[in-house]
Amino acid sequence: MLTDTRNSFRRIGDDDWMVQFTEEEKELLISLLVSTNFAKELVANEINDMEMGEKKLESSTYKKLIQIYDKVI
Amino acid sequence: MLTDTRNSFRRIGDDDWMVQFTEEEKELLISLLVSTNFAKELVANEINDMEMGEKKLESSTYKKLIQIYDKVI
């Protein structure tokens, strides 16, 4: 069941293509994330990577991650 | 770093409380999902659970999951 997904990508950097989701698809992904408890693991890993220096610690993103984490624990 | 998260929940069912994220937080979660490749696993698991009968197969949700899966593989 392969649909033509070429138009669902948006160029964000030289070689970076960001998938374009519809609002409904985003809502579904978010509710899946929360209902399966994946959100906590996903966000905790990212915070940890930033704190360990494995990922660039960009303060506004870091703050948002902490806010999300506080909501899902 | 605990903030007051009580107002970030929305009642959606008798005992179901859905976390309320801001638009920025949603965008961050979605970009994390895609960049860490978690999206594929998350969606594949859900599709599988529906096909195996472990979760109720609701056709419009199932179709959306397939669309998302086609975008992230």
Discrete helix count of chain A: 3
The major β-sheet of chain A equals: 2 strands, antiparallel
Which two chains have the most extensive interface, and how many residues on each? A-B, 35 and 35 residues
Task: Report the oligomer.
Answer: homodimer
**Low-confidence parts of chain A:** none
Content-based structural category of chain A: mainly alpha
Cα shape of chain A? globular
Count of the separate structural domains of chain A: 1
Would you write up a description of this structure?
The first copy, chain A, has helices spanning 23-35, 38-51, 59-72; strands at 9-11, 17-19. The first copy, chain A, has one domain. Chain A contains three helices and two strands. The first copy, chain A, is mainly alpha-helical. In chain A, helix 2 (38-51) runs antiparallel to helix 3 (59-72). Chain A has a two-stranded antiparallel ribbon with strand order 1-2. Helix content of chain A is 56%, strand content 8%. The longest helix of chain A is centred in the middle third of the chain and has 14 residues, at 38-51. The interface between A and B is medium-sized, with 35 and 35 residues.
Spell out the blueprint of helices and strands:
The structure is a homodimer of 73-residue chains.
Chain A: E1 9-11, E2 17-19, H1 23-35, H2 38-51, H3 59-72
Antiparallel strand pairs in A: 1-2
Helix pairs in contact in A: 2-3
